[in-house]
Structure formats: structure tokens, C-alpha cells
Specification:
There is one protein chain. The chain is of the alpha/beta class. Helices cover 22% and strands 28% of the residues. It has a seven-stranded mixed β-sheet with strand order 6-5-4-3-2-1-14. Strands 7-8-9-10-11-12-13 form a seven-stranded mixed β-sheet. Strand 2 and strand 3 form a beta hairpin. The protein is globular and about 55 Å long. The N and C termini lie close together (5 Å).
Amino acid sequence: MKIIPIGVWGGYPNKNEATSAFLIEQDGFRCLVDCGSGVLAAVQNYTELRDLDAVIISHYHPDHIADIGVLQHAAMVGMQLKEWDTPLLFYAHDKDPDEFKKLFYKGVTEGRAIQESETLNLGPWQVSFCETIHPVYCLAMKFTANGRTAVFTADTSWKEELVSFSENADLVIAESNLYEKYLGIIQGHMSGSQAGELAERSNAKRLLLTHLPQYGDLAEILNAAKSSYSGEVEFAVIGKSYEL
């Protein structure tokens, strides 16, 4: 399993970059995890768009879906040029029917509903889900194949159930949008120390921090994560390949 960060920002992209999204690959299957602002341009540094096999969406906030429309346009052009021969599949929850319907576009993309209670067989992976604590319905994801596991927390406040959901993961990719001083003030997100606590208590082998703020001294978030996690931790590095 190879995971490549495409963007690392929360809310909106920093200049010339993208919001938090990841390309995950295994056995020739490529899945894009979230598709927010700037992601479509950035992901083309690592794959041809026609080689994407699936897109999975955690929730319908703009920083996670803003580029879906232009990806649909790319699929449409690809179909017209006969470079794509099957619709691109978007996997997302259907708790918001209006947003879910937008995943269907002119026969070139189609939506597939994911459920918290069900495990999805997606390419080489089994993907399971855990509802997070966020202003809208949002799902954390766990990809498992060949005894290796990667967890994406998506956007969330601290939730105790995420500890068992992430148990013994080879990699936890945790949102870390808050400086410690904003705990209890800004809702729906975790701080660096909480991301570290999640990785420590779940016995995760490695921790990546993502969904970062554009302001302040990011070193504070990394140091806070290191204060509560004894394992290897770093900010997700755009374009770096993390092999499991």
C-alpha cells in the first residue's frame, strides 16, 4: 500500500497547494481520498486522471468536494476522446441526498453509497468506517489489505471510538487543525496533542498530521503531537510516498 499526500490544508488551500487529500495505491488500483480545492491540479503530478479507479469522499464540506465538478469534466472529456471507457465511481455517504445526487454526471461519473455499518470491498482493500464528530455527517476510513492498515480520521473532534477503530494501525493520518489554545473554542477538529493521544492509545506504528491551519507556528502542532505520542510523527509531506 502506497499513500501520497496531495494536499494538507484545512478549510482552503495555501497558495499554489491543495486542501487535505491523499492518493492511495496498491496492485495497480488508485483511489483518491477526498477531492477539495486544488486537488485536481495537484494529483496530476502523481497519476494520469484516467488512471484513477475510484474517489472516496469523507463528507460534503467544500474543502473536501470543491474539485469534484472539474474532475467530472475531465471524465467527460476522457469519455469523448475514448481514453476512459467506464464511469468513474465516487464513494460517499448518502445522508445528504442532494449532495450525493451530484456525484452522478452525464454517465461519466456515478455515486456509490457507503454506510458506517458496512465494510466496502474497494479494489485490493477492505474499507471500514466510523462516524466522526463534525458539524456535518462525516466518516473516518480504515483501509486494510495484506495485513496492513491505514486510518484516515477525516474531520473530527476527539471521539473515543476512534481509538478502537485505529487499534494497531500501521499508519494513522489524523487531522490536526487546532492549536491547543483553541480546544473547547473551535468545534469539529482535533489539536496536535489529541492526534498524538489517538495514535498512542491505539498503538499506531506511525502518525501523519494533516488538515493543517494556514496561520500560526505549525511547529507548535507538531510538538504537541510529540508530547502525547511516543512513536514516529511528522506533518504529511506533499508528494512523499508512504509505503506500508
